[in-house]
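Running this now, will post back.
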Amino acid sequence: MNGFHRKGQDLYCEDVSLAHLADVFGTPLYVYSLGFLQEQYEAFDSAFAGIPHEVCFAMKANSSLAILNELALMGCGADIVSGGELYRALAASMDPKKIVYSGVGKTSQEMSEAIDAGILMFNIESFSELIALDAVAGRLGKKAGISLRVNPDVDPQTHPYIATGLATSKFGIKYDAVIEGYERAGRLPNIDVVGVDCHIGSQLSSLAPFVEAATKLTDMLTLLREKGFDIKYLDLGGGLGITYDDEDPPTAAAYGLTLTDLMKDKGITLILEPGRSLVGNAGVLLSRVLYTKKGTDKRFVIVDAGMNDLLRPSLYDAFHRIEEVKQNQREPEIVDVVGPICESGDFLARGRKMNALVAGDLLATMSAGAYGFSMASNYNSRPAAAEVLVQGKKYAQIRTRQTYEDLVRGERPAVF
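Update: finished.
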């Protein structure tokens, strides 16, 4: 299904008018299509039906509790990178045995919480982390299941900020040190070696980097088994891209067929960590035009959503389509769509051709379901936006808009 479509001149989420939602809940407002999310998950899961696998949603893409709960109901697990994400995953009723813990900076407290929760495994990023985890597990009188995150030095051909599998990346253990790492892990009394892991980056538009990384990992799997390690899981991470503009990324079906051909008869369970590919195009950010302004060389459309609501354009110079919620027939012009934040880097789009806009018009910034709200902040003391989930003709507010009181909750004057 297409979660967002037009009925006449009006933009809808499933069977609900986005203009109606903006009137009810105000703007800025995140709106998600549950039907689209379900369809994306089912397509991804079914693409790997030919081999044992677990889909563990990369929570950093979208950690809203209602989204996680819906994914849990579908049978999805979670890829987490913090103690807060573990808390959210468990609060959303995700099965701990379908949770993998990634990230380079796990604290001892976070390790302890995850061990007590009974997660599937930790993806270990360094030898020092491995030693720390062994000590934490020992204090708890338990064993911690682990995989080592292999840095395969594969170019994912994506934005450098989201490329994680290159030799210059902070992530993972270099390929030629992995066997030594597993031998170290095998000697630790509180560590249970169960898997091999890698993740090469995000928003990949070709299957070639996945194939290169998967081939290196299956070679590593063979070596480890020859050395007596009982490897049960092969975690290939996530990274499948979505369409923001005119990209044509591989489908879940093509991705599944390619990896199934590589992994069949390997005697492992494949762990997959999609994030953006499940939720990216399931969400939009609604904003309302406040003012228009003609500068010396540019025209500006100033809206009530800023870089604190959607950071990707400012951080990555990322492209998001912006559509009028109600189409108009005014003459087109070239504009920058900017927010109210006191930064020149606060923009949603630059040099964009759009029909002339006026104060009060509603805009939908598309493909905002991933790394939208999850990267939002209170910069300039702006309250966080509300969120709404739509299913057919029904909708539910899944996060209330922050109040000014919320902004200062937990703060107090210094008393010496």
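Residues 158-167 have pLDDT under 50 and may be disordered. More later if anyone needs it.
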